[in-house]
Structures are given as structure tokens and as C-alpha cells.
Amino acid sequence: MNNTAIAASGLRKAYGDKVVLDGIDLNVEAGTIFSLLGPNGAGKTTAVNVLTTLLKADGGTAFVGGHDIASETKAVRKAIGVTGQFAAVDDLLTGAENLRLMADLHRLRGAESKRVVGNLLERFDLVEAAGKMASTYSGGMRRKLDLAMTLVTRPEIVFLDEPTTGLDPRSRRTMWDIVRDLTADGVTIFLTTQYLEEADQLADRIAVLDQGHLVAEGTPDELKRRIPGSHIRLRFTAGAELEAAERILPGSSRDEDPLTLQVPGNGGTKSLRDLLNRLDDHGIDAADVSIHTPDLDDVFFALTGHATTSEEVAQ
Questions:
Q1: CA angle, corner 280, sides to 277 and 284, nearest 5?
Q2: Residue 82 sits in the same domain as residue 177
């Protein structure tokens, strides 16, 4: 059985002289969460539009759910669901009516339509709001309804294009839980985001896209390990202890916080034990010890030279 949900090779797309996707390769395993990470303008939405057959690629090949995006567009669309940056709900309908409309469009009738709509309302905690107009929904509720509408057809692959943009932290975490539940049910998630924490929390694998190029790919931990900068942070209660520790720990440097010292190290058990033993041998006690490793923000900056908050026009 082929375990590949999405496979792309040399995918290219340009708008006039502006190359948005410059020959990217992708391989997404079925039942996983794959995140395409990048700033506004990196080409994330264009990649989604090409893979979901909304745009025609200028070059390269791609298969989604085993179907060629160029010659089997109907089969691709049958296998996928798509939720964009802005909820595509009808404000003049209630939550339940939005779902029933989607069911009707996909020829679900009678008892089957009622069962599907009822299950989705319950799954997304929208039962109490089912009879209310969608125009009265909060941003988080609208996003949940939008995703529920996408799932009416039970797609095997779901494309989520920056699904939590503009949501408050609580609503964002609710969406994260829903995404995890989907993969637990075997659904493949292709997630684009500019939120580093979101990719770190959710993704099994991450590809970093910058100016149309894939500049790195791997698990979150693999990407973080590429970047130097791991250190152990020691906090002391007295200046004399800090100065004594600084003298016996080569390469250490004072942190911005008062009475705090940074010591280069990978945070492994052996290096941490050796460091604490050296302090103990000199009668020095640290009030607090913490280990700090590079995060995805550090990774992205190191790979691209800028942060993911780059103010560019989204493509």
C-alpha cells in the first residue's frame, strides 16, 4: 500500500516575471501533519492552490491522493477538503443550514444528511449555536464551522491554509486539538502557517519555504538541531556567586537578566551533570538552572535571514 498522500516534483508557478514556486519537491506521508512554513509572500497559498487544482502549475508534477493534479482534477477534488485563511460560511444561514447546504451540494440526502450534520455539530461543539445565524458567530466559531463544512464529504486529505490567522490564543488551541483529532482518525493534514509555535506544536514534518524555494525540511527537532545556540542558564542570588561561576566556566557570559549566566552546552545529561559538579566543587550554588535550545524562530531566521513576520504581499 502506498503511504504517500501528496508527492510533488519540480513544481513551478510564476505570475509574469515573479516566480512564486521555483521547482519545489514535496512528499507527505498519509495520516500525518505536514506544515509548510513561511512568511507572507513566500508562496504558501500558491502551493495550496496548485495542489488543490485551483491553479495550474507552470511546470513539474504532483500527485494528491494518488491522482495527477493535471489530468485527474475531479479525482483530486473528490479526495480533498480545503479550508482557507478566511471562513467561507454564509452569514445569512444558520450553522446547521450551512452544513446542510454543503451536504446537499454533495448529494447527501435524508437520514444520511441529518446524521452527518448532527455528528459534525457535536464534534465541533456547535450544537448550541446550530440554530443561530453564522453572522453572530465569533471568529473561532466561524473557523470551526468552516472546517466542519469541509469535512462533510469525509476527505482523506485536508488542506488548511493559515486556518488560525486572526484567532485569539484560546480559539487557536481549540483548532489545534481538532487538527490532532483528525489525524488520529487517519486524515492527512497539509497545513500552511506563519505561526512558528503552531508548526512546532502540530507538525510531524516541516518544510520551510522562502521566496519560492524550499530551504529546509525535517521534523521540528531536526530543524532545531541544525542551529547552534543551545545553552544552560544559571541564576544566582548574589553577585559574588555569579562572578565566581563566571571565572570557572569558560565561554560563559552574563545574561540580560541580573545575576544570570549563560553557559554554552547542548543540555544533555552528561554536560549538565559536569557543569553542576564543577559548581559544587567550588562551593557555588545556583538558585535556578534551565536549559535553552533554539526554537523555530531561530531556525527560520538562520535559514532565510529574516523572521516570519516579513511584511510582504501574500501569494
A1: 135
A2: yes
Using DSSP's 3-state secondary structure scheme, residue 196 falls into helix
Question: Does 64 share its domain with 193?
Answer: yes
Specify whether the CB–CB gap between 286 and 237 falls below 8 A. Answer: no
CA 259, CA 237: separation in Å to the nearest integer?
7
C-alpha cell of 70? 493535471
Could you tell me if 62 and 29 lie in one domain?
A: yes
- How many domains is the chain built from? 2
Cβ neighbours for 97, distance < 8 A, ≥ 6 positions apart: 90
Reported as a single tens digit per residue, the pLDDT across 127-168 is: 999 999 999 999 899 999 999 999 999 999 999 998 888 888
Tell me the backbone φ, ψ of residue 286, rounded to 5 degrees. Answer: -95, 135
Regarding whether 85 and 18 lie in a shared domain, the answer is: yes
Q: 139 in a domain, yes or no?
A: no
What value does the mean pLDDT take over residues 174-189?
94
Instruction: For the chain, give the mean pLDDT.
Output: 90
What mean pLDDT is predicted for residues 85-114? 91
Supply the range of the domain harboring residue 242: 231-292
Do the Cβ atoms of 138 and 171 come closer than 8 Å?
Answer: yes
Which residue has 545556540 as its cell numbers? 229
Residue 141 CB burial class (10 angstroms; 0-12, 13-18, ≥19): buried
Its pTM surpasses 0.70: yes
Q: What pLDDT digit, counting tens, does each position of 15-38 carry?
A: 999 999 999 999 999 999 999 998
Q: DSSP for 90-151?
A: -TTSBHHHHHHHHHHHTT--HHHHHHHHHHHHHHTT-TTTTTSBGGG--HHHHHHHHHHHHG
Q: What is the mean pLDDT of residues 274-280?
A: 92
